[in-house]
Amino acid sequence: TEKIICRDVARGYENVPIPCVNGVDGEPCPEDYKYISENCETSTMNIDRNITHLQHCTCVDDCSSSNCLCGQLSIRCWYDKDGRLLQEFNKIEPPLIFECNQACSCWRNCKNRVVQSGIKVRLQLYRTAKMGWGVRAPQTIPQGTFICEYVGELISDAEADVREDDSYLFDLDNKDGEVYCIDARYYGNISRFINHLCDPNIIPVRVFMLHQDLRFPRIAFFSSRDIRTGEELGFDYGDRFWDIKSKYFTCQCGSEKCKHSAEAIALEQSRLARLDPHPELLPELGSLPPVNP
């Protein structure tokens, strides 16, 4: 039977409490990090927060017209009247979203302010059978719903390279050369517990709100399909993560589409071996323990 071992891991910092439950083993609620609800800095990042640099709209309605400048910056406003992503939103290569900001003429309750309004879905931290801690929702989630933001410590790529534990890094890809990451190892929110799924049900979208410094997008997770009550939430960590990590553990997502299980890796290596008569050049598979963060 599942026990509630903490009634709110967010300590009241989110709109909704996020309980922690365990029905698998005796592991206590994780406390090896500090829960924060917004990104933090431990060294100065010099984010451009100058209010006169913000592009903003002059709407006097709820920003539902195509004239809204913030919508135009995002190609169009991608939110429907319920704050969900429109069906035609590109989930494979999501556009940047520019939400309305404090320099806009519109009201705080306009339709182009979803991520800045915080978590609305009821989430739960729970002990999974094979993948340590995971996140699920004790409610159904329609496609396109904002789930939560990937929150942590903003650090430079150089700082990320010297950190011991790289398991909680999220790259803020930027075409201009300067690369930054969010590291949720020491400071983070509920998203640090979201596992990898080879058949993901949430996607990361880059969003701007209080500032428009393109080096520092905020990472917002939205549901990419309807999600059943109690179904584990997960996103695709990407091949780069697995290129590094598959030496140490393999994927336990259990999906028919799994690309990173021990079996899938072995199949891929035998396929490459057939193509390449020099198997000694292939990476060493070794005996891979299962993942258990």
UniProtKB/TrEMBL annotation:
Pre-SET domain sequence ranges: 55-118
Pfam families associated with the record: Pre-SET, SET
Main location per the UniProt record: nucleus
Keyword Nucleotide-binding annotated: no
Residues covered by the SET domain: 121-238
Xref: InterPro entries: EHMT1/EHMT2, Pre-SET_dom, SET_dom, SET_dom_sf, SET_EHMT2
Keyword Methyltransferase among record annotations: yes
GO cellular component: chromatin; nucleus
Any one GO MF annotation of this record: histone H3K9 methyltransferase activity
Keyword vocabulary terms for this entry: Chromatin regulator, Chromosome, Methyltransferase, S-adenosyl-L-methionine, Transferase
CDD domains to which the protein is assigned, alphabetical: SET_EHMT2
Example GO BP: negative regulation of transcription by RNA polymerase II
Source species, domain of life: Eukaryota
Subcellular location: Chromosome
Protein name in the entry: Euchromatic histone-lysine N-methyltransferase 2
Species, as recorded: Neovison vison
